Amino acid sequence: MSETSSIEWTDATWNPVTGCTKISQGCKHCYAARFAERWRGIPGHPYEEGFDLTLRPERLLLPLEWKDPKRIFVNSMSDLYHPGVPDSYVRNVFATMVKARWHTFQVLTKRSERLAQLGGSLPWRRNIWQGVSIESMDVAHRADDLREVPSEVRFLSLEPLLGPLDDLDISGIQWVIVGGESGPHARPMKKEWVVALRDRCRREGVPFFFKQWGGVRKHVLGRALDNRTWDEFPSPTPSRVG
Q1: Where are the beta strands (DSSP E) in the chain?
Q2: How do residues 199-236 score in pLDDT, each as one tens digit?
Q3: Contact 133, 27 (CB under 8 A)
Q4: SS in 3 state form for 103-121?
Q5: Distance from CA of residue 69 to its chain's centroid?
Q6: Residue 78 included in any domain
Q7: Is residue 52 part of a domain?
Q8: What are the angstrom distances between the C-alpha of 212 and each of 39, 160, 198, 226?
Q9: Phi-psi map region of 102: left, alpha, beta (phi>0 left; psi -120 to 50 alpha)
Q10: Is the pLDDT of residue 186 over 80?
Q11: What CATH number is associated with residue 173?
């Protein structure tokens, strides 16, 4: 967790839960697991237990201490809707997000089925954005589950993009993020996959954010697509409108 973040589409990260388990091909080279497992077994380290799922109740109220409005990525090191996270704990996380109304919270999950089951009973506010990760058409149903949720901003993180998504339905979606895989053993992403998604977003009026080309050394390939960066956000963002 940090008051700042190097992730291009957020300002800070908040991890009231850490650790996770892999459920699809997008998890194969998980950056969070790779980072956490480096510290397994080191006494006193926050990741002494590696990437085992761990609730962090001492962090629940942390965003209330950050007085300047931020976009906050929730559980960058976990998944809020993991089956090991009790419903009551999910509600505690939402209670903090409701109280910290000056922030914009970006919640991202691969467990879209549980999201859809819980979604109708959670206290959604304008400052709580909900997204799902989709890496290929094999898991495109996650977008359908997301559309069942009464979040004002629903977004898709198409990262790591592992194949074309020509048949992905983006109706009812307010933001699309696209990115290639980075780090050791990164799988390639083709430009035509990205261009097709960008062009469809432009036609349908959906803000498009291109995060990175990725690769083993992602800084070499950078973030430019057709000689410019694409850093579009839903507008206005709740934390900026009071």
Answers
A1: 12-14, 17-18, 54-55, 71-74, 104-109, 128-133, 154-158, 175-179, 208-212
A2: 999 999 999 999 999 988 888 899 999 999 999 999 86
A3: no
A4: CEEEEEECCHHHHHHHHCC
A5: 19
A6: yes
A7: yes
A8: 27, 10, 13, 13
A9: alpha
A10: yes
A11: 3.20.20
